[in-house]
Design goal:
Elements lengths: L1 E8 L4 E8 L3 E5 L6 H9 L6 E6 L2 E5 L4 E2 L7 E4 L11 H5 L7 H10 L15 H13 L5 E5 L7 H18 L3 E5 L3 H6 L2 E6 L2 E3 L2
Parallel strand pairs: 3-9, 3-10, 7-8, 8-9
Antiparallel strand pairs: 1-2, 1-4, 4-5, 5-6, 10-11
Length: 208
């Protein structure tokens, strides 16, 4: 389980978070600029908290008082950033295995489950938006992460694609049984996706 208690001061907002991430899908909502992305980037190891700590089971990822810092590449985190989600010039297979932290068998399993086997050697940039989302999810799951962090995973898709892609992503995440934080500003995704709802407002993460 991921537990955390930290503050991170950014030019636009100071994010404060204190809690633990249970199993299932946690939907984190809030206005643009409220600190949602900063929160998951701290968990992923892409942003250093100003104070506090982050723990994964018995392993300390961050403890600013003790000067402990585990870099992103040494954390078992699957991260899907917002925006440009694939390496367009690389094949689907190369995108999924980019981290080099999984196995060929895991890649084969993901390609089959994601419906991407026939695109194995296809350049990812030539795929549709929904297919690229599945490639990005495969890359995030490839190393068997202890936590999955999705930053606005549907924001780049047309409205008519979102429902189907959302259902596909949720089904695969639940099948892989990995705790997930799903960041969105779309309140309609809360009930459709999540097991629980956290709110980020002016940098404060509210955990019911």
């Amino acid at each position: 389980m991921i537990t955390f208690s930290f503050t991170v001061a950014r030019p636009s907002v100071t994010v404060k978070a204190d809690g633990a991430l249970p199993s299932g899908i946690t939907v984190l909502t809030g206005q643009s600029g409220s600190g949602k992305s900063t929160f998951i980037k701290c968990i992923a190891g892409l942003v250093k908290p100003t104070t506090g700590s982050i723990q994964c089971d018995e392993t300390t990822w961050v403890d600013r008082d003790k000067k402990i810092w585990v870099p992103a590449q040494k954390r078992q985190v699957g991260y899907m950033p917002q925006g440009n989600i694939v390496f367009p010039h690389l094949s689907v297979e190369s995108n999924i295995t980019y981290s080099k932290r999984g196995t060929p068998e895991m890649c084969d399993k993901l390609l089959q489950r994601l419906g991407l086997e026939k695109y194995r050697k296809t350049k990812a940039g030539s795929l549709s938006g929904g297919e690229q989302q599945r490639v990005a999810l495969g890359r995030a799951l490839y190393s068997k992460p202890t936590i999955l962090l999705l930053d606005e995973p549907l924001s780049a898709l047309d409205w008519n694609l979102r429902k189907q892609v959302r259902e596909d992503l949720v089904s695969i995440i639940r099948e892989w049984d990995v705790p997930c934080v799903w960041v969105t500003h779309d309140e309609s995704e809360v009930e459709a996706v999540g097991d629980r709802h956290w709110i980020c407002e002016n940098g404060q993460i509210t955990i019911p």
